[in-house]
């Protein structure tokens, strides 16, 4: 190797040594920036849902729901659906920031369908109960008679929907896009917001007929649970959910 070639290679070698940290630092900065962008993007499309506070104490319904069932149902089951919903949302890109918007989308993953349904359904369930129950307003009674012939027929159909739901699920009162009320039931944690529901619309009343909602007090007597739960419905809250 001649002297000129040796000097040339030595100079390029020194340039490489000098440039390497700069290139490496630039690459690291770029990777960090991309990671930050990814985190920002994920956080912008993955809302975080919180367990809403109960509007009453665990012992608010001693004749209908025992305090232990209330506590376990709320702190274990409802909290579990909330936590698992938030975990599921980190794995997918969702454009909606509301649980209603998420559940009404096409092609929900099984995890979002189950956990999101469990979160929404229990939110509604707690909201439509009140100690001592409440009376239906004249206007709501008129609406019931318009769509179900009588209040008695409405109450019987609602109890039957819960009683006849095989396995676990929910009984619903739903308002469709034409403002008509319907009674239906769904399996598992499905609800009428979902595209898979036979009757779609806005849920205004949901009754949990999973065994964890009643088994400690009623065992296999679901009909008795349903009869008593209808005595503690907050009909003002139900009517207020109508569109």
Structural commentary:
This protein has 243 residues and is mainly alpha-helical. The protein is built from 9 helices and 3 strands; from the N terminus they run ααααααβββααα. It has helices at 3-45, 67-89, 99-103, 110-127, 138-148, 151-164, 215-218, 222-229, 235-240; strands at 169-175, 181-187, 202-208. The chain has a 3-stranded antiparallel β-sheet. β1 (169-175) and β2 (181-187) form a beta hairpin. α2 (67-89) packs antiparallel against α4 (110-127). It is globular and about 45 Å long. Mean pLDDT is 87; it is low at 14-43.
Total number of helices:
9
What is the SS-derived class? mainly alpha
| Major sheet strand order | 2-1-3
- Mean pLDDT comes to 87
**Helix residue percentage:** 40-55%
Distance, first to last CA: 89 Å
Largest sheet entry: 3 strands, antiparallel
Chain oligomer state: single chain
* Rg measurement, Å: 28 Å
Number of strands: 3
Tell me, what's the shape?
globular
Low-confidence stretches: 14-43
SSE succession: HHHHHHEEEHHH
Portion of residues in beta strands equals: 5-15%
Characteristics:
243 residues
Present the secondary structure layout.
Layout: H1 3-45, H2 67-89, H3 99-103, H4 110-127, H5 138-148, H6 151-164, E1 169-175, E2 181-187, E3 202-208, H7 215-218, H8 222-229, H9 235-240
Quick overview of this protein structure:
The protein is mainly alpha-helical and 243 residues long. It contains 9 helices and 3 strands, in the order H-H-H-H-H-H-E-E-E-H-H-H.
């Amino acid at each position: 190797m001649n002297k000129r070639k040796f000097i040339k290679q030595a100079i390029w070698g020194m340039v490489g040594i000098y440039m390497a940290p700069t290139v490496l630092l630039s690459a690291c900065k770029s990777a960090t920036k991309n990671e930050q962008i990814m985190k920002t993007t994920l956080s912008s499309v993955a809302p975080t849902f919180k367990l809403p506070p109960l509007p009453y104490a665990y012992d608010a319904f001693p004749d209908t729901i025992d305090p232990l069932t209330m506590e376990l149902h709320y702190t274990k089951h409802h909290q579990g659906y909330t936590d698992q919903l938030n975990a599921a949302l980190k794995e997918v890109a969702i454009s909606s920031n509301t649980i209603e918007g998420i559940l009404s989308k096409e092609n929900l993953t099984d995890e979002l369908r189950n956990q999101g349904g469990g979160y929404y359904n229990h939110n509604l369930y707690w909201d439509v109960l009140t100690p001592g129950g409440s009376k239906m307003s004249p206007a709501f009674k008129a609406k019931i008679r318009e769509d179900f012939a009588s209040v008695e027929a409405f109450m019987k159909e609602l109890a039957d929907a819960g009683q006849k739901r095989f396995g676990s699920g929910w009984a619903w009162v739903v308002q469709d896009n034409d403002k008509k009320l319907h009674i239906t039931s769904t399996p598992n944690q499905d609800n009428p917001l979902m595209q898979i529901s036979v009757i779609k619309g806005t849920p205004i009343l949901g009754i949990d007929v999973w065994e964890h909602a009643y088994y400690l007090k009623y065992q296999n007597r679901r009909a008795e649970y349903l009869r008593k739960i209808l005595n503690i419905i907050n009909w003002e809250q139900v009517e207020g959910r109508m569109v």
